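Need a sequence for this fold. Nothing fancy.
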């Protein structure tokens, strides 16, 4: 964003006529983002273990309508899904379906024909709809289930934890080779519960403090060491009254924007 505004400022200073700042900035920002995604994709091919997006703290007091919109657009599940699109498909999809741009505007931004943009949007939309994540409709029920999940982990309550996990629950861990994390996804209620209870035991022994937080529009928690430094972020996908997915981000590079990070 900063680079886009700098480029606009330089263009005006050098005498260019920017008739529509919105159109100019949208085009520059999108092209910079596409280039960034292409380079990021190359880096992720060399990434150690599972790659997950950086956790984003969101306002737990948002109203229901606002939450529903946020959950769809910033959830971990949705951001991971977007990664399966090509950079240009992702740009076209977001400009059209999230930001409401016309196809003629999108064509100018991504330097494609309108027909080509329609095809890209349709292909991306089909892909997203086929795999779109589901979330608990009732925020009250979602938060209550998250509270029970975290309490079971902290207290070592095997029965309680198994009771809130879906039969096909899956857990992902992102350490990026810089912090201990599960190397491969863990599948199944019993295996996920066993692993989480092991983490809970370690946390109690080491004085780790789990604090409830809204992460990417979904319930979760932040883990802090006894000195108040951040160890990791945990994000839950909840649907049909059960925890479907657990995502743990402990790569310190993805946590620094949230505060001091542990060196342990």
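Here you go.
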């Amino acid at each position: 964003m900063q680079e886009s505004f700098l480029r606009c400022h330089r263009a005006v200073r050098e005498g260019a006529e920017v008739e529509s700042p919105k159109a100019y900035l949208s085009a520059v920002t999108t092209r910079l983002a596409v280039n960034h995604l292409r380079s990021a994709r190359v880096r992720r091919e060399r990434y150690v273990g599972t790659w997950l997006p950086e956790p984003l703290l969101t306002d737990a007091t948002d109203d229901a309508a606002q939450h529903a919109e946020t959950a769809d657009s910033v959830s971990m599940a949705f951001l991971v899904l977007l990664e399966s699109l090509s950079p240009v498909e992702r740009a076209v999809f977001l400009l059209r379906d999230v930001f409401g741009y016309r196809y003629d505007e999108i064509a100018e931004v991504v330097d494609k024909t309108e027909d080509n943009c329609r095809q890209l949007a349709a292909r991306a939309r089909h892909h997203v709809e086929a795999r779109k994540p589901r979330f608990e409709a009732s925020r009250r029920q979602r938060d209550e289930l998250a509270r029970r999940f975290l309490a079971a982990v902290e207290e070592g309550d095997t029965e309680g934890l198994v009771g809130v996990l879906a039969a096909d629950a899956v857990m992902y861990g992102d350490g990026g080779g810089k912090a201990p994390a599960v190397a491969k996804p863990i599948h199944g209620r019993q295996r996920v519960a066993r692993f989480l209870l092991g983490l809970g035991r370690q946390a109690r022994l080491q004085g780790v403090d789990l604090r409830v937080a809204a992460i990417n529009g979904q319930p979760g928690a932040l883990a802090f060491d006894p000195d108040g430094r951040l160890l990791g972020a945990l994000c839950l996908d909840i649907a049909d009254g059960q925890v479907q997915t657990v995502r743990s981000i402990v790569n310190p590079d993805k946590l620094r924007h949230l505060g001091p990070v542990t060196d342990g």
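For context: Strands lie at 165-174, 186-187, 209-215, 218-224, 230-239, 242-249.
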